[in-house]
Amino acid sequence: MEFDFTWLLWSLPLAFALGWLASRFDLRQWRFESRQAPKAYFRGLNHLLNEQQDQAIDAFIEAVQNDPDTSELHFALGNLFRRRGDYDRAVRVHEHLLSRADLSPKDRQRAQHALAQDFLKAGLLDRAEAALVKLDGTPFEAEARLARLAIYERTREWNKAAEVAELLEHAQRGSFRLRLAHYRCEQATALRQHNRTTEALTLLETLVADAPESARGWIGLAELRHSLSNTEGAWEALRQLCLHVPSHVPLVAHNLAIWAKLLQRTAQARELLHSWSARHAPSLDVTQALAHLEADPTAGRQLYIEHLRREPSLVAASLWLAGEHWGQGEEEKLVKQSLDRACDPLKRYRCAACGFEARQYFWQCPGCQSWDSYPPRRVEEL
User: Fold this and answer.
1) 343 is in an annotated binding site
2) Annotation-wise, does 365 bind a ligand?
């Protein structure tokens, strides 16, 4: 049977026509999808500008479904989830990005950083730490180390905090000398709590030798020496503080006066504090310490008058009036109680970063967690 070439002639144009129709259909579909993705993307962007996060998330989800290979849409969606507090979904988006084999190294590092931020915001500090460690050697290294430093401070892992602070110091990402000194002081406190006093003493002595500008180091060393009945060494530590960190003398003036009396060094302490007062603004703590050193109560009260001549102070006036007897017993008591109550807020310390006030002095603010944000002066003196 001979082959009929007529069918071949008919089939070739038919195949061409079907192929052309199929290509047109695919092209239309591609054009439709490519139009849909930008529309969803720009709709989401418009919702973002209008601070409509929920609608923006819906629009970006639609955009991602239309174009699942676009990493930028995934980053935008993950960031939106995190900002809304939907940390589980943010983690899933960024983990999905990290699982992709076609992701560029730059985007992989960016996704790792975003994942670490998700864990930080969610309060999953152990997982955040593990994610941040993986950012060593990347452009996010400095930021990741600062975040790890904050984690170690929150969890009070002072050894790890000191290691990271030293890395940042060596990388010239700022000065961390005083921050390191605080960590060493915290380590010394922990050693004392575990009855490892000798190690704590060695640590503090090394600290003040390496960082004499650390007021906390000198104060911690003085207190530790005093607890070991080494009042001579404690007084010497405070004297060194007066030389190296004079701004913090008001914090130690009281102990300086008490220990000077025990060691019969009243004249030396008085000279030290008077010299400090002549070079600095009046300090209530220093004035009180000088009054305590005076053998004659009248001479001590006169110091408050001299303080008032230099700077008006309700607290100083109240301290002067405390030694006066000028009225009926009950009336005098009521007036002095009222003055004490009015002076109480003025005796507090105030954080310069957030304004948190406290009766005691803090090296790290309980409110904003800033280090060295408390001026060593009372509220009335600021």
Assistant:
1) no
2) yes
